[in-house]
Structures are given as structure tokens and as C-alpha cells.
Amino acid sequence: MDWAERYRIEHTPWDLGCAHPTLTARLASGELAPPQAASASRSGARALVPGCGRAHDALALARAGWIVTAADLVEDLRPIVEPQLAEFGGNFVSGDVLTMQFDEPFELVFEHTFFCAIDPQQRAAYGDRMARAVAPGGRIAALLFPLDRPDERGGPPWRIDEQVYEAALGDAFERVTLDPAVGRTGGREWLERLAVYRRR
What we know:
alpha/beta
């Protein structure tokens, strides 16, 4: 998949044009709020958004008080994403998240249409990367999608569910919650769930 070309021709059906409604709801409820987000100063808690695209989710997290690193393979997204995140102390990095090295671990990873886009043979590498990227006690909030896409349709997006995702994560994480996503988002014909995992 030539992701840069898809952005160039604006054929990006995974882009909702806004933060995912489930993320918006969880931030509003405080469930995904950073530590000390209620204080006047920023929390200093770090969040990673892999495969950030145009950074709708990353910016929602940044506005809620997270210091966000938004990552994507497509370097051409930098002029769109970087200035907006910089206003909140965040940054954009371009490259393959599965091989990136980060200076410090993250308290939160927000996963939305990244895992379902990678080749299934890379799933173990994803789990290993997450185990090294997330601080002990930190969380992954993963929007699992597309749950009910027939396997014969192939991908991306590849069909995933909590069993597939948890097999990739391995024993480094424990599931905290598993809930339906809020509503049906435009252009999404497949079901979604939000799963939250804690780093052991």
C-alpha cells in the first residue's frame, strides 16, 4: 500500500475528519484523561498515536493535556500535523513505528486503524514494540476494527478482534476493559470495540 499516494490523491476512507467519537467520549468522561489534567499546568504525561494520519485523535489527546508524539510513515503529513501539535508541546515523527526508538516510555498509546493496516506477519513485532514503548502501569487504548470483516476480503484493513490483538501483545499486558465503540462512524461498515490494556 502506497500510503503517501493515498494522501496525495485524497483517497483516505479511514480518515473520519475528526477524532473518533469513542475517544472524544472517553476524554470527556475522564477515563482517558492524563494524570493531573485538572490542574492549570500540563500533566507531562506522554501519549503515542501510531499511524496518526492527519492527527485528529492526536490533537484531541493533546487538547486534553497529554504530551503527544504522533507517528506516521507519510512524511508529507508533517506540515499539517507538526504545527498543530507543537502548540500543545507535542511532536510529529515520520517513519516505521515498529522499528522506532523512543527516548522515554509512554503512559498511553492510542491505537486506531494502525494495527489493522499492518501485515499480519508484523503483529508479533507490534506487540514487542508496544511492550518496550509503554511504561509499566501505562495503557493502550485500542479501537479494534474491523471486527466482522470476512477474512476472505483480505486487507488492509485486516479483520481483527480482541483475541488477535491480545495474541500480538502477549503477556506484557492485561486487559482492563472491552466495550462497544460509540455509535457507527461515517463510512465504517464494520463493527468496532474499544479495548484498554495495562502494561504489567
